[in-house]
Amino acid sequence: MKLYRFNQKPTHDTYTLKYILWYLVSAFFFDTIIPGNKIRVILLKLFSAKVGKNTLIKPNVKIKYPWKLSIGDYSWIGENVWIDNISNVTIGKNSCISQGVYICSGSHDFFSKDFSLLMQEVHVGSNCWVAAKSIISPGSIIKDNTFVKFGSIVIRHKIIKQTVKKFK
Question: pTM for the complete prediction?
């Protein structure tokens, strides 16, 4: 790995103005302790996120690119969730992403000479609960009806710490 060879490619495509506007909006309405679920849902939709009906977005939520986010009906996003979505992130219907969860859709190739950027979609199915302080890595697919325990680390289809359990 030679970091001086790293070529920083923008992850926000050609949406530079859109990205700047989102950065300002998210600082005032998302990364704050001020309540206001309805306003957050409206703003996400204005920035091209797909948000289902009766979705709950709590305060202090970080979302990198709302136009790469889809959240199903009746789903909840808890306080201090960070959706670091340089690639698409999909959350199904009736799913709960609890406090402090980190969802990441990008990483770097440690073995490449230029530490190249890797972007992989993340999918959380319907009727899932990702419990507090869990980490969901790039390329992860959490199947429908799955419970990811508190503090778990999900790497693609493997749980490195803790376990996942299917609801009955």
Answer: 0.86
